[in-house]
Amino acid sequence: MPDLISALQLSAPEAALAVGGLVLLMIGAFAGEKSARVVSTLSVLLLIGATALAVTGPLGRAFNGAYVADPLAVYGKALIFLSSAVAIVLGDGWMKRTRIARFEYPVLIVLASAGMGMMASSGDLISLYVGIELHSLALYVLAAFHRDDLKASEAGLKYFVLGALSSGLLLYGASLIYGFAGSMRFDEIAAYASTNPSTGLVFGLVFLICGLAFKVSAAPFHMWTPDVYEGAPTPVVALFSTAPKVAAMVLIARTLEGAFAGSHDQWAQVLILISLISFAVGAFGGLVQKDLQRLLAYSSIANIGYALLGIAAGSTIGIQSMLLFMTLYVIDQFGFFGILLSLSRNGRPVRSIADFAGLRKERPVTAIALTVLCLSVLGMPPLSGFWGKWAVFGAAAEAGYWMAGAAGLVASVVAGFYYLRIIKLMWFDPAPDGQPVTDKSPVEAKAIAWACAAFSFPLVIIGLTWLQPLTVAAAAGFGAG
């Protein structure tokens, strides 16, 4: 009985989200669509409460090592849950603007967050798979949430079919690992791999990495990303760009550094190759895009390549650089989507890159915020995106992968074209056909966008108080089994 109580205390954040999500579902089912605003508010409060439980809760292991609560999991969950709360706020404004009031939206995000929390705390292959599937099933539905839109339905179907394929790869890799190691637990797999290296175990690891790479939309497993980003509702894409990627990156770091720390030379080569392909696909694929959400899809592919470089370094500094990069990336992404959700032209949402033409004259404050965010994601010093890339490139160079870091730098220069094109349109081109940009969005989207842009300035970054927890989280992640 004491062991059960301790396990429930450790897993309190996920338990609270699971139970709270079911309660909110019942409220919405009985009260109908008129309860959408109330359910959204309660969902945000529930996610904030889960964050508090994760931060203030005890540390340790539960369920025979399947669940791990350590500083890496705590930091990951805080970022995941808060990102999910921001996505609910953005979605609430979108539903009011489009007059689509559905209580299922925040409930699905809450349930997905429970799965993402499990991913961050996975201690064996079973909890890894359960966390991935729990959050993926909710995301499949969210991708097709606007069911009256043909593109949204197509996005949901593509995501589901390709997600099933990636799950097959992941399960096949997990079965090979279990077959050779004889255990599901990361610490026992690490003990076996360090004393009995085998080709079969490496093959299983490669399949496992391929399945996980799909979840972060790393190339060449990115095929779903542009179409899903284009077809899914904008606030859903904001969620896809942030919380699930953080959960998957923390899971990758925990799995590789925990279960396969002794096989670093093998899996680092795979991660470096995936990073290089992601650089090329993200940088060059974005050059021909006209839809802004498709452009952000290719941008995310390239940026995931940068984050994977940090993990490939195989060191505490590498994991710290990955966490820093993902934190700053999430903030920039929410800034972009906050601006997208706050503007419309000629009665339709701003989606095309050309729609930003003339924004300087019509919405100068928004133009300044978007310029800062573009330069930050580009990696222009001294904005926050520069420090994120500086950290991962530095970790890669310290580990001897300086050529991969140089390739990432070249990709950043290439990607600079499409960010600078947006800035050029805003500041130097006239509005298309004289159509003004209108601003009828709730204040939440604008406040999020401006806050994220303000966060990009270096004085704010230097003064952050979470850098020490980030360092502790990285130290826990290195060798986390």
UniProtKB/TrEMBL annotation:
Q: Which GO terms describe its molecular function?
A: NADH dehydrogenase (quinone) (non-electrogenic) activity; NADH dehydrogenase (ubiquinone) activity; quinone binding
Q: Does the keyword Thylakoid apply?
A: no
Q: Which GO cellular component terms are attached?
A: endomembrane system; plasma membrane
A Gene Ontology biological process term:
ATP synthesis coupled electron transport
Q: Outline the extent of the NADH:quinone oxidoreductase/Mrp antiporter transmembrane domain.
A: 122-413
Location in or out of the cell? Cell membrane; Endomembrane system; Membrane
Q: How does it sit in the membrane?
A: Multi-pass membrane protein
Q: What EC identifiers does the entry list?
A: 7.1.1.-
Known catalysed reaction(s)? a quinone + NADH + 5 H(+)(in) = a quinol + NAD(+) + 4 H(+)(out)
Q: Name the InterPro entries for this protein.
A: NADH-Q_OxRdtase_suN/2, ND/Mrp_TM
Oligomer and partners: NDH-1 is composed of 14 different subunits. Subunits NuoA, H, J, K, L, M, N constitute the membrane sector of the complex.
Q: Which family does it belong to?
A: Belongs to the complex I subunit 2 family.
Function, in words: NDH-1 shuttles electrons from NADH, via FMN and iron-sulfur (Fe-S) centers, to quinones in the respiratory chain. The immediate electron acceptor for the enzyme in this species is believed to be ubiquinone. Couples the redox reaction to proton translocation (for every two electrons transferred, four hydrogen ions are translocated across the cytoplasmic membrane), and thus conserves the redox energy in a proton gradient.
Protein's UniProt name:
NADH-quinone oxidoreductase subunit N
Q: What is the lineage of its organism?
A: Bacteria, Pseudomonadati, Pseudomonadota, Alphaproteobacteria, Caulobacterales
